[in-house]
Each structure stands twice: as C-alpha cells, then as structure tokens.
TrEMBL record:
Complex and partners: Part of the 50S ribosomal subunit. Contacts protein L20.
Protein name: Large ribosomal subunit protein bL21
HAMAP family associated with the record: Ribosomal_bL21 (MF_01363)
Name of the gene: rplU
UniProt organism field: Ancylobacter amanitiformis
Its job: This protein binds to 23S rRNA in the presence of protein L20.
Family note: Belongs to the bacterial ribosomal protein bL21 family.
Amino acid sequence: MFAVIKTGGKQYRVAADQVVTVGKIEAEAGASLTLPVLMLGGESPKVGAPLVDGASVTIEVVKHTRGGKIIAFKKRRRQNSRRKIGHRQDFTVVRVTAIAGA
C-alpha cells in the first residue's frame, strides 16, 4: 500500500518504511509527526477531495541536511558587470513509520 502526502508545497508518493528527503520541516531529529493523506493506493485506491477522511501517515524525522550548492552566475557582456550567488537548500530526511487508512 502507498500514500500520496503533501508537505512543503510538494506531493510525495510514500510507502511504509521508506526514507524520503522532503523540504525542511521544523521538528527535532527523532520527533514523530502525522501528515494528512491526499490519496491511498493499493488494490482499492481512495482519492480524497482534497483529503482522504480518516487516513494519515506517521513519519519520523531522521536528520536535517542541505542540498548541493547551486551557482547563479549572471554576466552582461562588454559592461564589466557580473554577479555570482551561491545557494544551498535545506532538506529534512524522514522515515515513514505507518500508513493508517480508512
């Protein structure tokens, strides 16, 4: 069985005991959270409008990490103008502990 959850403005397809990297969640490492479910899949799929009633996904925060560096380099030719900006996105690694379906 799998579930589709939404966190950080993005949707993720998750299964039990799966480790997923999602956008940063404000929680300590080792904390457990419950997320609402948009869709339950399996032999008899259930699609919510927008959420599936009585369904939830329990996750455990494994660690907080950061992505690789992305360089934004802008140059205007013949103007002696250039700009270099680096960015690293914050992520949270979570483990799906249980999927409770209705």
